[in-house]
Design brief:
The complex is a heterodimer of chains A (243) and B (102). Chain A is mainly alpha-helical and 243 residues long. Chain A has twelve helices and no strands. Chain A has three domains: 3-125 and 132-146, no CATH class; 148-202, no CATH class; 213-242, no CATH class. Chain B has 102 residues and is mostly helical. Chain B has five helices and two strands. Chain B starts with a helix and ends with a helix. The chains are: A mainly alpha (243), B mainly alpha (102).
């Protein structure tokens, strides 16, 4: 829709949706081109917005344990929505189903709406008047909610919000969100320091282990007790074979 | 032609970063610290995105009808409303506040 109004042809608009398939990057590219930007600068901005998908991929590759041959195909669908849906699932099977269904549905719908939007760019009128721009954050909030159960997760979310909003006016588009990702290592580091102070009195059970995903990866537990070692190794072994 | 270069560069770059995350060797991800970090990164990114999509207008921070919509979504979530209802609440409240001149 936006791109049709900024000098891209129908073919270019659809190619962008089909090939890039990361909403924020597409809008950034189109916006920069419309503003008369150099194509490579425009592409660099869009690229920055896409970098966060790498972090999603890191998480998804453990969670979905995709066969090597499938990964290049699945990669195109590694975006905000598919990650959030996959992470909300209790088991690997449902996570895979969630990822695939979300990926296919969004890919089809996104590209269909791009085509329709490009064809009848102005027919729809002002979508903002209908409050549809609030749907995006509401979806993210709904997907985020089950992921912030522990103190650690809440702290990460809070720091990320502060970084994301605080840096928005001063950094180029796309960079604040990446900077907000720093909330995760920062909070982990602070938590680690706090815990190392209290390490002597208990084999501290940090709240991260209550995280929704902790139960499906028993191998994740730090193996300090020798009796736990075989179990941990076995799980790691099984997971290796699944690949 | 220039536009095609931009489209192609963006497509390649964005695909490469998506694939990179999936291709990191599994061994590197077995370490507990890396695992915990990878689990927390989406939390940070989603939280920041939610906040930005609610309060950002370009590169400026604004408080407008979207904030009311998101608050409605939060209330719906606390009440354990189903997913679609949560989104509908956000959309309806945002539209309502805008209609009243918010």
């Amino acid at each position: 829709m936006t791109s049709a109004g900024s000098g891209l042809t129908l073919l270019q608009t659809c190619a962008l949706s089909l090939l890039v398939f990361t909403g924020a990057s597409q809008f950034a590219l189109v916006g920069a081109l419309a503003a008369g930007g150099n194509p490579l600068t425009a592409a660099a901005g869009a690229f920055f917005l896409g970098v966060r998908n790498t972090f999603y991929g890191l998480r998804l590759s453990q969670l979905l344990a995709l066969p090597r041959g499938v990964r290049p195909l699945a990669a195109q669908w590694v975006i905000d929505e598919t990650t959030a849906v996959a992470l909300a699932q209790p088991t690997r099977r449902s996570a895979r189903i969630g990822f695939t269904v979300t990926g296919v549905t969004l890919y089809v719908l996104w590209n269909l709406t791009t085509l329709l939007g490009a064809l009848g760019a102005k027919a729809l009128g002002d979508t903002d008047a209908w409050g549809l721009d609030a749907a995006g954050p509401a979806v993210f909030l709904a997907l985020l909610a089950p992921m912030v159960k522990t103190t650690t997760e809440r702290a990460v979310a809070a720091v990320a919000v502060l970084l994301g909003l605080g840096l928005l006016p001063v950094l180029p588009a796309g960079v604040p969100v990446l900077a907000a990702a720093l909330a995760a290592p920062v909070v982990l580091y602070l938590e680690g320091r706090r815990r190392s102070g209290a390490r002597d009195d208990a084999r501290g059970v940090p709240d991260v282990r209550n995280a929704p995903d902790a139960r499906e990866v028993p191998g994740e537990r730090e193996v300090r007790d020798p009796t736990e070692a075989p179990e941990g190794r076995e799980v790691a072994h099984v997971r290796e074979e699944e690949r | 032609m220039n536009t095609w270069i931009a489209v192609a560069a963006t497509a390649l770059g964005c695909y490469a970063v998506k694939l990179a995350g999936l291709l990191v060797p599994a061994g590197a991800l077995e370490r507990p610290l890396v695992k915990r970090l990878a689990a927390l990164l989406p939390v940070a990114l989603l939280a920041a995105l939610t906040a930005q999509q609610t309060f950002a207008d370009g590169r400026a921070l604004v408080l407008d009808a979207r904030a009311a919509g998101l608050a409605a979504a939060a209330v719906a979530l606390v009440l354990r409303a189903p997913f679609l209802l949560v989104v509908a609440a956000a959309v309806l409240v945002t539209a309502g506040v805008r209609a009243m001149g918010g």
